[in-house]
Amino acid sequence: MKKSENEHKTFDIGGFVFNISCPKKLSFPDNFLLFETKNFSALDCEAAFSYRIELSEDLSLPEEKPYAEREDMKIYRDGALESRLIGARGHEGYYAFYREISENECVITLNASQSELLCLDTVFTSLFAFERRFLTRAALILHCAYIEYNGEAILFSAASGTGKSTQGKLWEKYRNARTINGDRGLLTLKDSKWHANGWPVCGSSEICSNISLSIRAIVMLSQAPENSVYKMSPKEAFTSLYSQLTINNWERSATVRSMDILEKLIFSVPIYHLACNISEDAVNTLYNALYGEEAV
């Protein structure tokens, strides 16, 4: 009997359990493997989705007109099912074709000639259209630096280059905090409380952990010569946070669903704006706002 050339792995990201069947020679980024579960039989739920990965010397491009497209992707629809030609910015052609064959299963065909791109966690994770999966689970993917302090999560969010990781490092230095992920966090509602979860993409921070913690606060950042902080109104918080979410803007139903989930979040979790510089005073200013009478 010919030995199978495929292997099967099970992963758990924020309570979303999924299977991947793929060629044994396919390498997974180290950050992605942090979310592999070796004791699937001990989990309380079965896998919610199955991915089958295949290798091909060339991708067969769909003949129909795309439902939507952007620089690095073409999207196709067949009723409720979606397909995607996936590329990488700055590279010609496409490295994968993602095709849903049912509501809980898809096939991903990889272009073998561009397999070197898959060592990048951003490229590899883009194969799985996770934002579609998590939207049905009332979860949001937020661009943020996720730190742990006193057993809770504090999330720093802002446009790239504003200083999310920098503020996280200041909390590590002055408050003995720990960075869980320097670039992304998955926000889920568990037992009526919002939690931040690890994510297999960490950006330039290179810090990635598979840890789930209840959220103390989300902090929107801006740079300023002097430090100041205030609690944002729901309207202001909604606008600021929405711009930092991973959302399929080409699909109206996904946009509306994301907005509904975000509305629930901002009425359950304190959202602050911190105008800050790079100093210990920036940490103290936020600390006093978050912990009030608990502050020492």
Can you offer a commentary on this structure?
There is one protein chain. By secondary structure, the protein is α+β, with helices and mostly antiparallel strands. It has 2 domains: 6-128, no CATH class; 140-294, Phosphoenolpyruvate Carboxykinase, domain 3 (Alpha-Beta Complex), CATH 3.90.228. It contains 7 helices and 17 strands. The chain has helices at 30-33, 121-125, 130-135, 164-175, 234-242, 252-266, 280-291, and strands spanning 6-13, 16-23, 49-56, 68-70, 73-78, 81-86, 96-102, 105-111, 140-143, 145-149, 152-157, 178-181, 184-190, 193-197, 212-223, 228-231, 271-276. The strands form 2 sheets. Strands 9, 10, 11, 12, 13, 14, 15, 16 and 17 form a 9-stranded mixed sheet that branches. An 8-stranded mixed sheet has the order 1-2-3-8-7-6-5-4, with no helix packed on it. Helix 5 crosses helix 6. The model has no long low-confidence stretch (mean pLDDT 91).
What's the gist of this structure?
With 296 residues, the chain is an alpha+beta fold.
Distance between the amino and carboxyl termini:
69 Å
- The CATH architecture of the largest domain: Alpha-Beta Complex
Main beta sheet: strand number and arrangement? 9 strands, mixed
Name of the level-1 CATH class of the largest domain:
Alpha Beta
Which sequence of SSEs, written as H and E, runs from N to C? EEHEEEEEEHHEEEHEEEEEHHEH
CATH topology of the largest domain: Phosphoenolpyruvate Carboxykinase, domain 3
What is the beta-strand fraction?
35-45%
Count of individual helical segments: 7
Principal-axis shape equals globular
